[in-house]
Amino acid sequence: MKEFVLDEPLTEGFLAFLRQFGTVRYLDTLKKPYFSFEKEQFISIKGFVGDESVEVRYNKEYQDLLGDYFHLLLYYFRQGPAGIMQLKQIEESLNEKMKIRQGTREGART
Amino acid sequence: MEPIPQNGHKGLIYLNNAATSWPKPPGVIAEVKKSLQNPYFEQGRTTAGGAIDYPVAARTALAGFFCAEKPDHIIFTQNATDSLNLLIHGFTRNAPAPFHTITTELEHNSVLRPLHALEMDGAITLTTVPCTDNRVSLTTIKEALRADTRLVVMTHGSNVLGSVQDIKSIAEYLRANDIFFIVDGAQTAGHIPIDLSHMPVDAFIFTGHKALFGIPGIGGFYLSDPAAIAITKQGGTGSDSASLRHPRDMPTRFEAGTHNYPGIASLYAGVRFIEGISLAAIERKGRELTASFIRALKKTDTIHIYNESPDLPIVSFNIDGLDNHETGFILARAYQVITRTGLHCAPLVHQRIDGGNGCVRASLSWFTTPDECQVAAEAIREVAKECA
């Protein structure tokens, strides 16, 4: 688990961006508008819209591959709609690497 | 009550006292400071004089606190986990192995992991007995006994359910049957009276940083018969230094190396603080506050409480539709209510109560106020209502 302090507060726009990549839960009627983001096999994020910090948990098994994923989300969010396509391509590449590693592990077990 | 300095944490509602108590009494902080300001003094380890010999003072205070016959049989360790490791491994090394051991599903990993390691090594066979209504009965222990049972290790109070176990009757039965009994009092010491003169356990474990108001890094145990436990640590004791054989006398038998002096000072001051209030008052306040906290939570039916009548000030719950980590995160960040989430290092009891997914634990201390309980309960209810 890592906690990141951001340059600027999180926005609902960022949540809309996150929805392109995983499941977002948004509880906007709480005292502070809470959200969580879950991308299976990748990461989960917890935070509040309007806050400048978030808690990020990585899939331990692929932490070396996914260590920059949260930064990629922030970076490509700033690129606007084009960022969605670019990040999806990176994700495909990451998925491939994860599959290869999983296959190697399963092969080693048999 | 003396106001407690919160050092910039004004507004924080700290309900994680079953992990580590906070705030600490001013007397504890002052005693730690004093212990660091004065030259270290302990017989055999310095030529300095005139300061307090904290290990001796704390041993005496703790022996009185637990109604233990011999202060020298109080041994200092790092914490309850350290104590349990020393006792479990020390007993196993001494006993004709392999032998049968009984433990319970209420246990912390500080019990479960050493026992599991010994089981994997073939040193013991292990039976883990279930609880009924948050308690493990003498009948359940009796049913698990075998001809080769030599050891029973169990908690005095569950760190998840806050249920105090009937240690006295189990201890009397096991003593009559010559079975060594180790009791983990990490959650009870400082919350309820413990009278070792009427509770014939072979070893009773305590830790300093919870309800005894000490600082982290200090704990210990009381041991009736030192010969039952093999010496697993050797080193300097400040006594009999010409001999390469580690001393057999108590307490040096189980204490090698320089003591955690500030930690022991904190424990000494913590016990004195409790005695100044009285355990009866602490226990009464804990029960009353916990009961009112539970009553408040029960007003919202999407809050699932796992222990509606705890003996200790511990309340474990989940909010329907919300993961326990999320609940804890929201409470901490949006409401400044600090709890502990997850499995609380007690995986087996969570398998029983919540399918092993974990829950939120709110744990109170003497310093928790009725207002704090009310505000925290309102916060939890608000989250539950919004998530419904």
Give a written overview of the molecule.
- The complex is a heterodimer of chains A (about 110) and B (about 400).
- Chain A contains four helices and five strands; from the N terminus they run E-H-E-E-E-E-H-H-H.
- The model of chain A has no long low-confidence stretch (mean pLDDT about 90).
- By secondary structure, chain A is of the alpha+beta class.
- Chain A has helices at about 10-20, 65, 70-75, 80-110, and strands spanning about 1-5, 25, 35-40, 45-50, 55-60.
- With about 400 residues, chain B is of the alpha/beta class.
- In chain B, about 35% of the residues lie in helices and about 15% in strands.
- Chain B has eleven helices and 13 strands.
- Chain B has a seven-stranded mixed β-sheet with strand order 2-8-7-6-5-3-4, with helices on both faces. Chain B has a four-stranded antiparallel β-sheet with strand order 9-10-13-12, with helices on one face. Chain B has a two-stranded parallel sheet with strand order 1-11.
- Classes of the chains: A alpha+beta (about 110), B alpha/beta (about 400).
- Rg estimate of chain B, integer Å: 21 Å
What is the CATH superfamily classification of the largest domain in chain B?
Answer: Type I PLP-dependent aspartate aminotransferase-like (Major domain)
Give the overall shape of chain A, derived from the CA principal axes.
globular
Unreliable segments of 5+ consecutive residues of chain B: none
Estimate what percentage of residues of chain A fall within beta strands.
15-25%
- The tally of helices of chain B reads 11
| Elements of chain B, N to C (H/E) | EHHEHEHEHEHEEEHHEEHEEHEH
Helix percent band of chain B: 25-40%
